[in-house]
Amino acid sequence: MTNFLIDFEPVGKRVSVSETTSLLSATQDAGLSLTAVCGGVGICQDCKIRCVSGKLSEIQLIERDAFSPQELQHGWRLACQAYPRSDLIIEIPLESMATEQRLQIEGEIRKVAVQPAVYALDFSLDPPNLQDLRGDWERLVNGIPDKQVLQNNPGLPVINQFSVKMRRSGWAGRVIIGKNQCIVGFLTEGQPFYGVAVDVGTTKLAVFIKDLSTGETIAKDGVMNPQIAFGEDVVSRIASANSNRLSQNALQEKLVDAINRLVGRLIDEKGIVEDQIVDYVVVGNTAMHHFFAGLPVQQLGEAPYVPAVCRSLNFSARDIGLNGAPNARVYMPPNIAGYVGADHIAMLLATDAPSREGVSIALDIGTNTEISLALNGKLISCSCASGPAFEGAHIQDGMRAVPGAIERALFFDGDWHYSTVADKPPVGICGSGILDIVASLYESGQIDASGRFTEHAFRLVNRPKGGAIIMVPGKDSGTGKDILVTRRDIREIQLAKAAIRAGIEALLRATVVDLAEIKKFIVAGAFGTYLHLDSALKIGMFPKLPTDCFLQVGNAAGAGAQEMLLSLASRKAAESILENLTYLELTTDPGFIQSYVESMGFD
Asked: Which residues contact 2 (CB under 8 A, 6 or more apart)?
């Protein structure tokens, strides 16, 4: 009987199953919960999945009823009816999941004076009659004091909305005016208007809806980035986009559609209509920035890895299919380099890193880790490929932070002690968990400084691909199978932590700064929120500094996006960061490789 490897995204869980195992059973083997009210006979049609790559069994009649021919052509299937015929990448849409992944969307937000990029002007007009046959727009031009605004070409969607709304509202209303005196849209008189801050991460999307008059957060939520189905990291997605133009369009459409659906659900819950969404601020790394804006990404995948644009962007949301008022605007702060984007600018803004006294290090840990060193108002930044291990990828039983993922672990009294997300039976290990495990293995002498298992390794087993420990025996796991930590898993953490530490060392060399001079070490991002600082210090990922130097700030990129949504001054401050920043390309740094090799070990 043939076994195949199935990669379930966006949860990042992998499982090997036979060709006689349905994909629904495979998700259960992997410890994942799909909605399947009918118990897997195909009646409820809830267990919808999409085959991104690989071959499945023949389409069944019940699936032809569940999906259109176009959907079937794009890989949509019912998990209970589909069986593997090769290795697979399977996308599980959010609506098919019975449990959701934990997403870190919060960050520390500074208080700013509310001065958004749009303002409102209420007006009242005389209605047309047989003695006054002026066009609707000309009536507006003559009826409000700010004539200069109305001289600009408003665009057909704005004129269309105005004529319809005036007849419904008795010729009184509110015009929303944006930067550069452009008309964004019309509301009823006194109607509130809102903005949306979006943090487009490689793994997750975070959305914040703000009242642009008061600065109040009205709603917020996060979802997985649906592009994960095209690749876990930006390099894979760039390669997919470069394969043909249709792939890049699909990547953009998936991103925009996910944002539209999330924003749509949030405003529906709050009784807000689309026309009230008048402004967006969107941040992301350079690749996510380009995918969102529909910019070419080919040059990001080829040396010397330069962006299509670094400067800030301001364009109509409708240019890319984003929902909102007829001329809702999108602001994107500047990028730094090919692999350090607008999200890092937003993080630096939110943490006030450039203005802190003395030397500060600020880093956002992810598949790519961006690091900046601030000194006397100047910054130097770099990007290091830390890989997806901290998100549970490339780990034998790794997964993202879904219920049942081991997120904390410690070895004492001769056994492993751990906690899982949502206190569910363990089904795998997420990034913070594997970091704790490796740190405990080293501290307890179960691995040596090179990462190899020692004779003291607890529950050590030999496998064809190398040694492993049984972290959780099958009788105690949520899948009935042993949860393992392999030598290769430890190696993945060594590679990731070495890249981060070598990046830090490169910035210190470039600025001739000693470790002892660092006053503040800021750790941002979802993984940075949940990691156990002691574990990061034990394995040498971070330099050994006093614990009060470290500051874990959560989703600082999202916090910076919110700040820029509320304040034009913050947008200017973000743009000024780029003016005082130097980018260090690590491939040209003569000492980087040596630092990287030296940082691989645990001593």
From this structure: 18, 19
Number of Cβ atoms within 10 Å of the Cβ of 152:
12
- Integer Cα distance of 246 and 226 in angstroms: 16
Cβ burial of 123 (10 Å; 0-12, 13-18, 19+) is: middle
DSSP string, 183-252: EEEEESTT---EEEEEEE-SSEEEEEEEETTT--EEEEEEEE-GGGGG-SSHHHHHHHHHH-HHHHHHHH
3-state SS of 324-355?
A: CCCCCEEEECCCCECCECHHHHHHHHHHCHHH
Please give the structure tokens belonging to residue 555.
């989703």
Tokens matching residue 480: 């009935």
d(CA 107, CA 437): 27
- In whole angstroms, give the CA distance from residue 240 to residue 311: 26
Q: Are 391 and 431 in contact (CB under 8 A)?
A: yes
Give burial (CB, 10 Å; 0-12/13-18/19+) of 17.
Answer: buried
**Cα–Cα distance for residue pair 196/280, rounded to 1 Å:** 5
**The pLDDT of residue 147:** 58
What is the Cα–Cα distance from 545 to 539, expressed in whole angstroms?
A: 14
Share of the chain above pLDDT 70, in %: 95
Categorize the per-residue pLDDT at 236 as very low, low, confident or very high, splitting at 50, 70 and 90: confident
Q: At what angle do helices 286-293 and 234-243 cross, to 10 degrees?
A: 40
Contact status, residue 90 vs residue 6, Cβ threshold 8 Å? yes
Of residues 29, 11, 12, 21, the one with CA closest to residue 427:
29
Confidence of residue 220 (pLDDT cuts 50, 70, 90): very high
Q: How confident is the model at residue 192 (pLDDT cuts 50, 70, 90)?
A: very high
| Residue 592: strand, helix, or coil | helix
pLDDT in tens, 524-569: 987 887 888 999 999 999 999 998 899 999 899 999 999 999 999 9
Quick one: average pLDDT of 53-65?
91
Contact 478, 426 (CB under 8 A): yes
Q: Which residue shows structure tokens 């749009």?
A: 118
- Amino acid found at 576: S
Q: pLDDT tens digit string along 133-165?
A: 988 888 888 877 765 666 667 889 999 999 999
As a whole number of angstroms, the distance between CA 537 and CA 531 comes to: 11
C-beta of residue 98 within 8 angstroms of C-beta of residue 35? yes
Q: List Cβ neighbours of 356 (8 Å cut-off, separation of 6 or more).
A: 374, 519, 520
DSSP category for residue 115: B
Cis bond leading into 10, ω under 30°? Answer: yes
In angstroms, rounded to a whole number, what is the distance separating the alpha carbons of residues 14 and 237?
A: 19
Q: How far apart are CA 315 and CA 282, in angstroms?
A: 11
CA dist 584 and 163 (Å) reads: 54
Task: List the beta bridge partners of residue 371.
Answer: 363, 382
Nearest to 430 by CA among 474, 470, 393: 393
- Specify the DSSP class assigned to residue 102: -
- 169: pLDDT strictly greater than 60: yes
